[in-house]
Amino acid sequence: MNTDTRPPEATDGFHLLIDALKLNGVETLFALPGIPITDFLRMAQAAGLRVISFRHEQNAGHAAAAAGYLTRQPGVCFTVSAPGFLNGLTALANATTNCFPMILVSGSSEREVVDLQQGDYEEMDQLAIARPLCKAAFRVLHAEDIGVGLARAVRAAVSGRPGGVYLDLPAKVFAQSVPADLAKRSLIKVVDPAPKQIPAPEAVQRALDLLRGAKRPLAILGKGAAYAQADAEILRFIESTGIPYLPMSMAKGLLPDNHAQSASAARSYVLAEADVVMLVGARLNWLLSHGKGKTWGAASPKAHADRQFIQVDISPTEADSNVAIDAPVVGDIGSCIAAFNAAIGADWTRPAGEWTGAIAERKDRNLSKMAETLAKDPSPMTFQSALSVIRDKIKERPDAILVNEGANALDFTRSIVDMYEPRKRLDVGTWGVMGIGMGFAVAAAVTTGKPVIAVEGDSAFGFSGMEVETICRYQLPVCIVVMNNNGVYGGTDQNPRGDDVAPTVFVKDARYELLMQAFGGEGVRAATKAELARALDEAVASGQPTLINAVIDESAGTESGRITSLNPAAKKK
Ligand code: ADP
Ligand code: TZD
Ligand code: MG
Question: How much is the pTM?
């Protein structure tokens, strides 16, 4: 079909946008069609862009965010106005919260109608609604401004602390005709969109002095460090200083989890005992108990512990957000860690054996305890026994990407499944949001071509489960493992009224594997470790879309997984 209706001496908004995207290196669009996006997507495909079309905008948005995290280029998502826009907004806000660069582009109604609230088809003041939920929001009112609009969106998404950007394009702009010479000059190829930010030498020195004086130093690597793609500098820093480190969830694999200096298996010990903690691309938010309280060895939940912090971060306002930061180092992680590496002389003293030995002792103890649990082969499976199979598979295929969401399904996977390569673990992130699963899995497969294993709580999977059709349609090498324990945290809750089931309980023994079969993919039910291992081997070897319904003991989980402490009812008990 010929979709090009432009006179030879002019172009239009549709094509200007395509040209602007291509000029800035965008190769893939994550989208869901509808006026005026349908035509745009057809033209984009005709112009050579890859279009991945989803069943719900939230999943398209999550895919764009994950693509942004994996590539350091903004992932781009297209939605229609009002309801489509709102469906995409959760992903935009989540991307911003997690510091992932993405651009949400939505078609919208004309301002004249919206501002007078005259009731257009899918009318909504989208720009105003998006603004507080993202890093930046722009609207283009003339097609000749599309180049500037996209350039601003790209810069806002990837420079400094990355985040989500909203770009509002009223339907009219797509169809506007622009003289060809004006159009050409209106495009901008963004030069150096995420410029290096070199840290001040004094800041690096202050931090190093603190680190040098430490008796029990600890580094904490966050997903900002993984995002920075400064893997070699970080490895060199950790190994040449000898400092024990803890990876935050998505920083697992930045250094291999079986690294001798990893303190993951002694996490509570090192957090409580370290005297100087160096945060590298990790915020002191709830995931690190805000830097205070009992986790950090203080006497009571609100008390400040006796400890000093170094924080390496690109955001100049992140330091002191929870507790005092003694040595903030502001800059991009690649430049900062390179500066540390350059300043560390041959006279560097590695941490005392008293500290590293105490960590090693606890690690050994905890790891052998874990090995015992993992070796068990109960029927039905527990989270641990099922995950021992996934653990072995990732060890064998460290290039595979692990997507992970749920409560118990998340927490057990994080602690059991070791990662060996950077940016191979994608999960619920800073918000602990459910619903990232299939969007992240699609993005991981599309942007890397590697096998994807998505370990999903049965509840978590439900948030984006319809995208199994998308996975089959694009024939993506995604293997979904539904950890089926019959509900949210499990399937054993009782309703005291005795009529409906309890709010956390799902249909027992649901056949999730049939969902994948419905679209031509492989669907397998696995009730034992051997069955799970066989199905997973086949899925990864074949690269066929697969869903494994892993039957887990419905009483094996705990309420809220490992965040029970945040639960007011549990606190009261
Ligand atoms: P985690 O959840 O893994 O602890 P967070 O999302 O809390 O990680 O923190 C990531 C931090 O990394 C943010 O404060 C962000 O500003 C920072 N960051 C992101 N990219 C870079 C970069 N390239 N250089 C330096 N800091 C970065
Ligand atoms: N809605 C959204 C968008 N995010 C959330 N985090 C929640 C609701 C609350 N929630 C959790 O924090 S975990 C979870 C919900 C609904 C699901 C847990 O059940 P699961 O995992 O089956 O996915 P387990 O393995 O049964 O614990
Ligand atoms: Mg469950």
Answer: 0.97
